Amino acid sequence: xxxxxxxxxxxxxxxxxxxxxxxxxxSGHNTLYWYLQNLGQGPELLIRYExxxxxxxxxxxxxxxxxxxxxxxxxxxxxxPAELGDSAVYLCASKGSGAxxxxxxxxxRLTVL
Amino acid sequence: GxxxxxMEGPVTLSEEAFLTINCxxxxxxxPSLFWYVQYPGEGLQLLLKATKADxxxxxxxxxxxxxxxxxxxxxxxxxxxxxDSAVYFCALTLQGAQKLVFGQGxxxxxxx
Lengths: 113, 112
Known about the structure:
The structure holds two protein chains of two kinds.
Chain A: E1 5-7, E2 10-13, E3 19-24, E4 31-37, E5 44-50, E6 53-56, E7 65-68, E8 75-79, E9 88-95, E10 103-104, E11 108-112
Chain B: E1 3-6, E2 11-14, E3 19-21, E4 23-26, E5 31-38, E6 44-50, E7 56-59, E8 62-65, E9 75-77, E10 86-94, E11 101-102, E12 106-111
């Protein structure tokens, strides 16, 4: 089966510009996650979806970050405007019902200049 | 809150050396424990897991035993290869919590 697909893999933008990342989870996986991975650190949860509902977004900086999962499949994470400190890798993961193992995508590496 | 602490890296070893990467956790309940590996340029991949005390997870020659008494889940491999060079993450999830909490990662480099 196809894995979790993310795009773009790399993005370089200037500060104050907007950026969006896209994630296509494994087919049939109801739970979708966005994690932030800063350089040299472990991933940290930004938001978790159960189908189309955001059930845990407590760590999402809502002043500049937004996410959506229309129709409970693909998801988009947006940053507007981007800041220098947003340079990081944004990871998407998905999980099937009843499972306790997350499958991760390759990540989207953002560089803000 | 729930947390995971890993030994600091980077760790550099010669091929065929014995590997240990320490991991301890703090959790209010009874977590499931995981090791994920991130090869250069790739996403996180599940390496092994254990869901209850005294369980041993194993894969690709790596092993880790869930030690409730010491709240640890140390990763071991008897003879490492150059291809094992990667960043290793210890993580936990609590039943019902539905999310992974990661340690900071340990970068491993194996020299031929």
